[in-house]
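Reply to dn_fold:

You asked what the input looked like. This is it:
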Amino acid sequence: MTRAVIVLLCVLALLPTAARATLTQLPAATEVVVHKAQRRLELWQKSRLLRSYRISLGLNPIGHKQQEGDFRTPEGRYVLDTRNPRSEFFLSVRVSYPDSRDVARARKAGVKPGGAIMVHGLPNEPRWPPEHYAREDWTDGCIALTNADMMEFWMLVADGTPINIRP
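and this is what came back:
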């Protein structure tokens, strides 16, 4: 059993019955919107804002990802397509970058587009103090949440949910 599942089961076991009933009725996000400049990730259910979280981005956050190793977070419309409960971070959900346009642009430039762009929590083995992760952009191009926010994101967002990453 993964660590995330064990943590979730422990949390559920500690909740009163009424809270467990509410938890099973969580709303499902129909779209994720990222505002890179504001460092915000929003969960939407149609026209209703469900949640808004502070995020950290890649070390070089301005502009669309151009190639592998540029430390940029991509911009555009993608899909959250795969979950990884055994990530080197506290949970992760893959963004479908690169798409065919990203691959074509990279090929034309003679570079690799990169990949493995995720929405994830904090590293399982931190290299910096907690304050660093709370206030800095520190990923290789991913979108990072706190572990508590990542757990909620995990429960509210299904595979196949669109993600719109805006400048």
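Strands lie at 31-35, 40-45, 48-54, 76-84, 92-95, 118-120, 143-144, 161-166.
Hope that clears it up.
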